[in-house]
Amino acid sequence: MSKLTESFSGVRGVYGEDIDEEFSKRYAFAFYTLLKNKIGKEPKIVVGMDTRESGDAIKQALISVLTDVVDLDIATTPMIELGVREYNADGGIIITASHNPPEYNGFKFLGSDGAVLRPEMMEELIELRRNVVAEEQEAKIQDKHDEIVEKYIEFIFKIVGDVEKIKNSGFKIVVDPNGGAAVVVIEELLRRLGVEVVGVNMEKAEFNRNIDPNNESLSYLVDKIKQEGADFGIGFDCDADRAEIMLEDGEIVSGNHLFGILLDKMGENNKTVVMNDVVSGSVKEIAKKHGMRVEEVEVGEINVVDKMEKTGAILGGESSGVVVPPSTCRDGLLVFVMVLKILSEKGKKLGEVLDELPKYYSIQEKMKTDDALRTREKLKRFFSEKYKITEKGGETGSLKIIVDGSFLWFRASKTEAGVFRIISDSNNKEKAEQLLKEGIEAFENA
Questions:
Q1: CATH fold label, 361-445
Q2: Which helix (H) or strand (E) holds 275?
Q3: Phi and psi angles of residue 294, each rounded to the nearest 5 degrees, phi first
Q4: What is the pLDDT of residues 102-144, one digit of tens each?
Q5: Are 335 and 260 spatial neighbours (Cβ–Cβ below 8 Å)?
Q6: Is 98 assigned a catalytic role?
Q7: Which pTM value belongs to this model?
Q8: Which CATH number fits domain 5-143: 3.10.20.30, 3.30.70.890, 3.40.120.10, 3.30.565.10?
Q9: Catalytic option among 24, 98, 282, 320
Q10: DSSP labels for 382-432?
Q11: Which of 28, 110, 188, 368 has the fewest CB atoms within 10 Å, i.e. is most exposed?
């Protein structure tokens, strides 16, 4: 079965099976054609990639059908999005499969604002790719890799503001980019912040754990944190838009927790925060405490970014990470530095700050299905007889079952073929576990 997925989140598949150089050329030429038709001139396109082995061959294929290229080479997704804005480009292509396994690769296509394409334009691109014949062209290429590293560090410092307290706090952090794109910037960034780095998996393409940073894949950091006497450990995915933190006692600080920590610091009365419909109830409690307006959207980073722009939100996010304006994507490194600043100002350990947040339990399971639409419809019929249901994203979107302040959530992945996610969330651990069990049983009987 093909592993190829094409959605508003981007394109992903197994290199050599679903994605190869010719496929890449067609997508790049379709994107070039789409932009040229819209702006009426040769488009300037930023190109960058994560550290997967197939990345360079794909990059050369893309460039061969473009005419004006800013080459950032290996860079994080937030760096490449920044590059589109910094170099006044008309668009960008990120060669990445994000948190998918190493044998995968793919593309995220960016508009002139640096954000991923809006769904309507991505649909247009997907359709055009199917009909276009790629034509090789002579490209003007600017190599801006070293420059974007510096510009990105400056960008983070500008958002974070005064970092003297970070420098004076004597932080020691176990850092695990897992050989991903964060390796090109993280040591220099933290050196300038006075943070002592204990590096793990710092060689490019050194994928020694599951690429998706989570409780299971980062559990091995606990011993390293204790051995080094470090404050905590942090792990990134391959393009560094996702990050999760591991504490010395084995507790994971997830995207939900990081969202909550930042919101508790930045929250203001009558301001707006945007989140997707699977963000933990903990974050909503924090927003309520600060008297904030909550805008809930369908899963998908661009849905968060779009709603943030329309509402002037001060913060946005998903359960996998946080969007801090003026950034147009989740950014694991930026959020990490902001957490360091909060800790330095509070004079507290991360575990102590975590204890100040409302305690919720979010548990998830990945299931497999060959017919996501049929499965979703059966789940909807089953649960609608017992509980209140909300939906986002139409017949291919999410189902959220509301149960006395807790929820059970279902959605077919649009980045992993055949994967169906089930997530439960509650301020009671036993309730969260019971809901997840009920969700799995319903899925298996669907």
A1: TATA-Binding Protein (3.30.310)
A2: strand 272-276
A3: -110, 125
A4: 999 999 999 999 999 999 999 999 999 999 999 999 999 999 9
A5: no
A6: yes
A7: 0.95
A8: 3.40.120.10
A9: 98
A10: HHHTTSEEEEESGGGSEEEEEETTEEEEEEE-SSSTTEEEEEEEESSHHHH
A11: 368
